Amino acid sequence: MDILQLLVSGLANGCIYGLIALGFVLIYKATEAINFAQGDMMMLGAFITLGLTNTGYMDLPFWIAVPLAIALMGVFGYLLDLIVIRRMFGEAQIAVVILTIALGFVMRFAAGTIFGHEPQSLETPYAGQDLRFGGVVLGVDEAVVVIATVALTVVLFLFFNRTKLGVAMQASSQNQLAAYYMGIPVRRVQSLIWGLAGVTATIAGVLYASKGSIDPSAGLLGIKAFAAAVIGGMGSLPGALLGGIIVGVIEPFASRYVAAGYSQIAPYLLLFLVLVFRPHGILAQVHRKKV
Amino acid sequence: MTTASMEAHIKDPDFVLRIDNLESFYGPIMAIRGVSLVVPEGRVVTVLGANGAGKSTLMKTISGVMDPQKGKIIYRGTNITGMAPERVVRAGIVHIPEGREVFPLLSLEDNLAMGAFTRSDGAKAVQEDLDMVFSYFPILKDRRHQQAGTLSGGQQQMLAIARGLMSRPKLMLLDEPSLGLSPLLVREILTIIRRLNREQGVTMLLVEQNAKAALDVADYGYVMDLGRIVIDGTAETLKRSKDVQEFYLGVQTDSQRGQKRWKQKKTWR
């Protein structure tokens, strides 16, 4: 029972890591750059929701605030690419990476200025309720995390495989030049992917903030999610979710069975092992170009 | 031979494409130095030339992937110079790039669907074209659920042409479709290109290093060297031309004399 309880709480955390990792992979596949502001976009999405729904702020109903925040962050991601990132077109990848790190700082301080640096919790209609299955206690918030992640995964799967735009996003990331030749507006597609990354980040942020509290430095969680993305295979969307869940599940087990100081190392130790023995990640999507 | 003499050769001067004095840079290098050519409706026109002659740059400039420095590209009476690639595709020009460039992890079917990306004439019309495309390339139908990256080079070339066809082009720009293929496959692909031209009415602008194969299917040909058109004429004329035979068809009459002639001809430029 004890193990089951650890597994369940790890799963909920893992889903959140997985959703942030998803954002890393989306942008990496589309632009071959790593968006280190992904964690901060998660934080920003959570704070926008908080600002819209919490009683001290705008006091909108939760179920209106969430879609509104998702839409706002989608537009934010789109415009971020359109106005800032696209100007780096043709520059070295490292320049884009450093730019995203800087953008992360900007978001962190902007959120700190507006909302303060103290942890705050997102007011949700389901806060504090529990589900009991035998001896296992599952918070409704944790159940919502898992259900929302599964639902989002299904939606994204259908989007990427069944819709013209989704397939075009895949096509543009696999062979940008060929996408141009086929008349796919590659740059607009890339901006849309940044928008989508904003959407998934916000969903992750809402789930994260509803489970505990959030403060402007919560975006640093992104590093753990990045490790998850690499563990899962940096080019693979299912891999990102799998990597997130693995990291999420390992954590509570490590803190239960390993000495306190060392348990924090567990996800990175796993990252190390994966990089040594399976450098492309667990679900690698490697295509070697034939001559 | 000049454009004027070409108009005399081909009775119907209804040009799909007319290029006037085009100049284009590939990085710092001026890859095209004032090219003028015409492609008449319903014909197969080939541009021959060695590596680095500027053929691919010419194609990329037409399809809008590269912008020219100078000159004009007129497609069916409209100036398309410097137009964005997606608008060029919508206008009816599709570019089949050198080296196939398929989407390796997408299924064949999804690759073909991406060929139809710019179309808005409904799923039924696209499905009809899919059937048409499969009738020319039956092997693609058998493998339509396979990932494109797992296909052989010849099959990928077929897929690249088929994907281009899905955009319902009026003009197809084919960049080195014979690259890296066996002689038998080259013949097969070029035969299909000729059939598509005759049966589907797609005008073809075919860039080739394999001059012999290209002249077998083309109506008219231009020879490019170092960014300029140096010779042009009907396919028959070019095949008989001593210069083309020596420099591009590899026919050696007298190697000593040939060398001398080559040096003499160098003063063209």
Automatic annotation (TrEMBL), chain A:
<feature type="transmembrane region" description="Helical">
    <location>
        <begin position="225"/>
        <end position="250"/>
    </location>
</feature>
<feature type="transmembrane region" description="Helical">
    <location>
        <begin position="6"/>
        <end position="28"/>
    </location>
</feature>
<keyword id="KW-1133">Transmembrane helix</keyword>
<keyword id="KW-0813">Transport</keyword>
<comment type="similarity">
    <text>Belongs to the binding-protein-dependent transport system permease family. LivHM subfamily.</text>
</comment>
<feature type="transmembrane region" description="Helical">
    <location>
        <begin position="257"/>
        <end position="277"/>
    </location>
</feature>
<keyword id="KW-1003">Cell membrane</keyword>
<feature type="transmembrane region" description="Helical">
    <location>
        <begin position="40"/>
        <end position="57"/>
    </location>
</feature>
<keyword id="KW-0029">Amino-acid transport</keyword>
<feature type="transmembrane region" description="Helical">
    <location>
        <begin position="192"/>
        <end position="210"/>
    </location>
</feature>
<feature type="transmembrane region" description="Helical">
    <location>
        <begin position="136"/>
        <end position="160"/>
    </location>
</feature>
<feature type="transmembrane region" description="Helical">
    <location>
        <begin position="63"/>
        <end position="84"/>
    </location>
</feature>
<dbReference type="Pfam" id="PF02653">
    <property type="entry name" value="BPD_transp_2"/>
</dbReference>
<dbReference type="InterPro" id="IPR001851">
    <property type="entry name" value="ABC_transp_permease"/>
</dbReference>
<keyword id="KW-0472">Membrane</keyword>
<dbReference type="GO" id="GO:0006865">
    <property type="term" value="P:amino acid transport"/>
</dbReference>
<keyword id="KW-0812">Transmembrane</keyword>
<dbReference type="InterPro" id="IPR052157">
    <property type="entry name" value="BCAA_transport_permease"/>
</dbReference>
<protein>
    <submittedName>
        <fullName>Branched-chain amino acid ABC transporter permease</fullName>
    </submittedName>
</protein>
<feature type="transmembrane region" description="Helical">
    <location>
        <begin position="96"/>
        <end position="116"/>
    </location>
</feature>
<dbReference type="GO" id="GO:0005886">
    <property type="term" value="C:plasma membrane"/>
</dbReference>
<dbReference type="GO" id="GO:0022857">
    <property type="term" value="F:transmembrane transporter activity"/>
</dbReference>
